[in-house]
Design goal:
31 helices; mainly alpha; 2 domains; Serine Threonine Protein Phosphatase 5, Tetratricopeptide repeat
Length: 669
C-alpha cells in the first residue's frame, strides 16, 4: 500500500501532466458562443457598486436560473469587455484540475464504502487516482475546457462531487447515531451543493438523483440497527427522492407542452424526433469516449441529423433498444459488477435534463463532462485490482494514460490555433453549416477570397433554409468584392421569407449593416436591398411575434436614419416601442436620433416611452430574467439612464437652436 506522501506526490504529478497537455490551448481565441455570453462584463459599469454587481450577476440568459454562479466566476478573469481570452482559459483549466482532484477523492470515498458493503471486493489504493486521471486526461473534454463559455458545464461537477461527499458525511453521522448532524449534512451540505450546482447550470439540479444512485449502490449500510437505517432512509427520501421526482415531473411537464407541436419553435424537429435522436447521440458520445480522437471537432456540431422515424436513419431503433437494454442489464448485474453498473447508470441519469424533453440542440460534446466522470473507475479497477497479471495490467493502464495525455496535448495544440481549428472543423464537419461559414470567413480574411466565396455559395445552395448562411454570404460578398450578385440577394430573400428555423443574429446584422459603409455602399444591395431583406423577413410567419416585429422595425428605423430621413426613422422607432415597450430600445433609439443631429426627435421618442411606461407595471419575478428586470427598475438603473440621456439631448438641442439663431460673421460685418 502506498504511503500518503507518495500518493500525494503521484497526484501532483498527474495534475502537472494534465496541465502540460492542455497548456498549448490556452493561447487560443474566444470562440463562437463566447462573444455573445461574455459581453455582459462591464455592461453596467464598474463592479465597485453593489447594484452594478447585481445587474451583472442577474443578466444571464441561459436556463430559467440565468446561471449566476457561472456568471460570477467570469469576474475572476475580467471586469470589463472586451477582454483577453487567456485568463478565462486559464481559469477553465484550473476548474478542470480541481474537478480531477475532487473526483479522485470522491472515488476513494465510494471505493471504501463499496469495500465495507462487500468485504470480498479486492481493490487498490491507487485506483481512485487512476480513475480520476483517465477522466482528466481524456481528449474529449478539450472542447469543454478550452471553450470559455463551457465553464458553465464544468462548474456543476464541482458541486455534484461536493454533494456526494456531503451525503457520505451525513451517512457517517447517521451510522454513529448523530441524527441531528446527519440531517444537517443532508439538508445544508448536500442541498446547498445542489443549489450551487443548479445555479451554475440546470443539469446540476440532478445532483440528488445522482447522489441517490451512489447511496443505493455503495453508501447505504448493509446491516445497521433499524432505527439508524430508518433515520437514514427518511433523509434519503426527503433530500434525494423528492427532489429527483420534482425533476422528473418538470421534464414530464415540458414534454406535455411540446409534444403536440409538429415543430418546436426555433428548431427543425418535433419533440418525438428529438427523443428518437438522443439515443444515437448518447452512443456517439460513448464511441468517442472509448475511441478518443485528436485534431479538431467539437466546436460545430449542427450536422447531427435528427431521426425522423424509428428507422430514419436505420440505426435509430437499434440505438434505442441497445440503450434500454444496457440500462436493464446494469440494474440486473448490479451485485456482480457494482462499479461498472454504477458508472454506466450514473452516465445515463446525468444526461436526463439535456437529453430528453427540454428542446436544446441535439448534440454537444460538452454535455459529457459531468456524466462521464465515473466511467474511468471500472477501467482503473480492472487494471489495478489485486490478482493475476497485475504488472501487465498496470503497464497497460499507464500506456493508456500516456496515450490520452498525448492525444489531449495534440488536440489542445489545434484549439490554440484559430486558423487550424477552423480548417479542421470544416474538414471534419463537411455537413456543418456553422463550420463551413466560419472557415469561409477565415479564408476571405486571409485573402483567399475566391475559395471562401465558392465555399459559402456552395453551402448556401445546399442549405437554402439557413438564415445564418443567407446573411453570412451577403456580408462576405460585400466585404470582399464590394458588390452583391443578384442571385445571392434573391436566394437570401427567399430564405428569410420561408425559413422555419430562425436565427436571432439576423436582427443585429440588419442593424449593423445599416451603418456599415461596406454594406451601405455594396453594389446590388445598399439600403434599398436591406429594406427588401426586412420586407422578406416580415413575410415569414416566424416573425409574427411582437418582439420580433419590434426588432425588424428597429432595423427599419436604422436604415431610415442612414438614408437621411430622421422623421421616418422616428416613426419606425415609435412603432417598435408601441408594439413591445422596452427601455433598452428607447435608450438606443433616442440616442441614435441624437447622434444623427436630431436631438429634439430623440426627446419626443423618450416622451413616448415615458407615456407607455406610466401605464405598465413591472412583471412579477418568475425566473432570473424577470428578476433582472425587477432589479433594474428597483435600483433606478433605467430611470437614471433615461434622465441622463434626456439631459444630454436637451443640451444638444439647445446648442443646435443657438447655432441656428447666431448670425454668421458676414452678417455682423
Amino acid at each position: 500500500m502506498p504511503r500518503r506522501p507518495a500518493l500525494l506526490l503521484a497526484t501532483c504529478a498527474t495534475l502537472l501532466a494534465i496541465t502540460w497537455a492542455y497548456w498549448p490551448g490556452l493561447s487560443g481565441p474566444f470562440l463562437f458562443d463566447d462573444l455573445g455570453n461574455l459581453d455582459a462584463l462591464g455592461a453596467y459599469g464598474r463592479m465597485d457598486h453593489w447594484a452594478n454587481f447585481l445587474y451583472y450577476i442577474s443578466s444571464g440568459i441561459a436556463d430559467p436560473t440565468g446561471r449566476p454562479i457561472a456568471m460570477l466566476s467570469f469576474l475572476l478573469d475580467a471586469h470589463t469587455w472586451p477582454a483577453p481570452p487567456w485568463p478565462f482559459k486559464r481559469t477553465n483549466l484550473v476548474v478542470h484540475l480541481v474537478n480531477t482532484a475532487l473526483l479522485g477523492w470522491t472515488v476513494a470515498t465510494l471505493q471504501a464504502a463499496a469495500q465495507r458493503r462487500r468485504p470480498a471486493l479486492r481493490v487498490s489504493p491507487l485506483t481512485p487516482l487512476l480513475a480520476a486521471a483517465l477522466w482528466g486526461a481524456h481528449p474529449l473534454f478539450v472542447s469543454t475546457t478550452l471553450y470559455v463559455v463551457q465553464r458553465e458545464a464544468m462548474l456543476p461537477m464541482i458541486f455534484v462531487l461536493l454533494a456526494l461527499l456531503a451525503w457520505q458525511r451525513a451517512v457517517w453521522c447517521f451510522e454513529r447515531g448523530r441524527a441531528r448532524s446527519g440531517w444537517a449534512w443532508a439538508v445544508a451540505g448536500m442541498g446547498g451543493a445542489t443549489l450551487l450546482a443548479g445555479f451554475s447550470k440546470a443539469n446540476g439540479f440532478l445532483a440528488p438523483m445522482l447522489v441517490g444512485l451512489a447511496y443505493l449502490w455503495f453508501l447505504r449500510p448493509g446491516e445497521r440497527p433499524a432505527a439508524e437505517l430508518r433515520q437514514m432512509d427518511h433523509a434519503a427520501w426527503w433530500c434525494l427522492g423528492v427532489p429527483s421526482l420534482l425533476v422528473l415531473a418538470y421534464l414530464a411537464m415540458v414534454g406535455w407542452k411540446f409534444w403536440p407541436m409538429p415543430r418546436i419553435p426555433g428548431r427543425e424537429w418535433s419533440l418525438s424526433e428529438r427523443l428518437l435522436s438522443e439515443p444515437r447521440a448518447l452512443w456517439s458520445y460513448a464511441w468517442r469516449l472509448v475511441l478518443p480522437r485528436a485534431g479538431g471537432g467539437g466546436l460545430f456540431v449542427d450536422d447531427f441529423v435528427p431521426s425522423r422515424g424509428w428507422l430514419q436513419p436505420w440505426v435509430t431503433l437499434p440505438a434505442m433498444l441497445a440503450l434500454a437494454g444496457s440500462a436493464v442489464a446494469a440494474i440486473a448485474l448490479r451485485l456482480r459488477f457494482p462499479i461498472a453498473t454504477f458508472a454506466w447508470l450514473f452516465y445515463l441519469a446525468a444526461h436526463l435534463l439535456e437529453g430528453t424533453t427540454i428542446p436544446l440542440e441535439l448534440y454537444f460534446e460538452h454535455r459529457n463532462y459531468l456524466p462521464a466522470m465515473f466511467l474511468g473507475w471500472p477501467l482503473a479497477h480492472a487494471a489495478l485490482r489485486p490478482g493475476a497479471y497485475g504488472r501487465y495490467r498496470s503497464a497497460t493502464a499507464a500506456l493508456l494514460l500516456a496515450a490520452l495525455l498525448l492525444l489531449t496535448h495534440q488536440r489542445a495544440l489545434v484549439w490554440g490555433d484559430a486558423a487550424l481549428l477552423g480548417a479542421l472543423s470544416a474538414t471534419d464537419g463537411s455537413e456543418s453549416a456553422r463550420a463551413q461559414v466560419d472557415f469561409a470567413a477565415q479564408q476571405v480574411r486571409q485573402g483567399n477570397i475566391a475559395a471562401g466565396l465558392d465555399r459559402i455559395r456552395a453551402v448556401q445552395h445546399a442549405q437554402q433554409d439557413s438564415v445564418d448562411i443567407a446573411i453570412s454570404v451577403i456580408g462576405m460578398e460585400c466585404a470582399a468584392t464590394g458588390a452583391l450578385q443578384p442571385r445571392t440577394l434573391d436566394q437570401s430573400m427567399r430564405t428569410l421569407s420561408t425559413a422555419s428555423k430562425w436565427n436571432y443574429r439576423l436582427y443585429q446584422w440588419l442593424q449593423n449593416a445599416a451603418v456599415d459603409p461596406a454594406t451601405r455602399q455594396c453594389r446590388g444591395l445598399g439600403l434599398a436591398g436591406l429594406g427588401d431583406l426586412i420586407a422578406a423577413a416580415e413575410r415569414n410567419p416566424q416573425n409574427a411575434a411582437p418582439r420580433r416585429r419590434r426588432d425588424l422595425w428597429h432595423a427599419r428605423g436604422r436604415i431610415a436614419l442612414a438614408a437621411g430621413n430622421p422623421a421616418l426613422a422616428l416613426r419606425w422607432f415609435n412603432a417598435a416601442l408601441l408594439i413591445a415597450p422596452d427601455p433598452e430600445y428607447a435608450l438606443v433609439q433616442a440616442a441614435a436620433l441624437g447622434d444623427a443631429g436630431m436631438p429634439a426627435l430623440g426627446i419626443r421618442h423618450l416622451d413616448l416611452y415615458s407615456h407607455l411606461e406610466s401605464r405598465r407595471s413591472t412583471p412579477p419575478v418568475r425566473d432570473m430574467a424577470s428578476a433582472h428586470v425587477w432589479l433594474l427598475h428597483h435600483y433606478g438603473y433605467y430611470s437614471d439612464e433615461l434622465s441622463n440621456l434626456r439631459e444630454r439631448l436637451r443640451a444638444d438641442a439647445a446648442k443646435s437652436t443657438a447655432a441656428a439663431v447666431q448670425p454668421d460673421d458676414k452678417d455682423r460685418r
